[in-house]
UniProtKB/TrEMBL annotation:
The chain crosses the membrane at residues 14-34. PROSITE patterns: THIOREDOXIN_1, THIOREDOXIN_2. GO terms for biological process: cytochrome complex assembly. CDD domains: TlpA_like_family. It holds the Pfam family AhpC-TSA. The keyword Transmembrane helix applies. GO terms for molecular function: antioxidant activity; oxidoreductase activity. Residues 55-197 form the Thioredoxin domain. This is TlpA family protein disulfide reductase. Keywords: Cytochrome c-type biogenesis, Disulfide bond, Membrane, Redox-active center, Signal-anchor, Transmembrane, Transmembrane helix. PANTHER family: THIOL:DISULFIDE INTERCHANGE PROTEIN DSBE. It comes from Candidatus Segetimicrobium genomatis. GO terms for cellular component: cell envelope.
Amino acid sequence: MDTPGAPVQSRRSLWPAVLVGGLLIAVGVAMTLIRMAPPGPRGGLATGPEGGGGPPVGRPAPDFSLPLMSGGTLSLHSLRGRPVLLNFWASWCVPCREEMPLLVRLHNRYGPRGVEFVGVDTEDLEADARAFLTRYHVDYTLVRGADERLMDAYAVPGLPTTVFIGANGIVQGKVVGGFVGSEGERLLIERLDRLLESAPR
């Protein structure tokens, strides 16, 4: 799993802390892991290709069927044969706002070449999500994640998180954090080019 420069917002960021003692233990463990982890791109953490749990890189992507924001439903298996960029986001997530213009721009470049962009709106109010999409002129496929089961299946630790799925339905990689700045754009283009290589000729 790669970690771009922009921070992630924890999926639990809106929840109050309930046990101070447990929090202190967690901080101690996290600091130990940070000291042990090698530096990643732009000072992020390189935590391994599987990102501390599923979906395992090299394994089938967990399937789902979720409501489309345009109406109807979308099942992941219906996209088999096409490479997929699966982006978990929310309107309140600051790094999501920072990376969205790049995602829209690269969708216009890679969508016609066969890459399916799918945005999964999570932990959000629908009205806020729709206002966000209008503001950033998001024109690719969007679904609403009604609960956390899909985030758990993909081991999403924070937002945004992007999963890259090959045309054969196998997970190629997962990136936690926003694709921002020139380095973020370079990394995303590199990932998209790899996805295209998985598409049938």
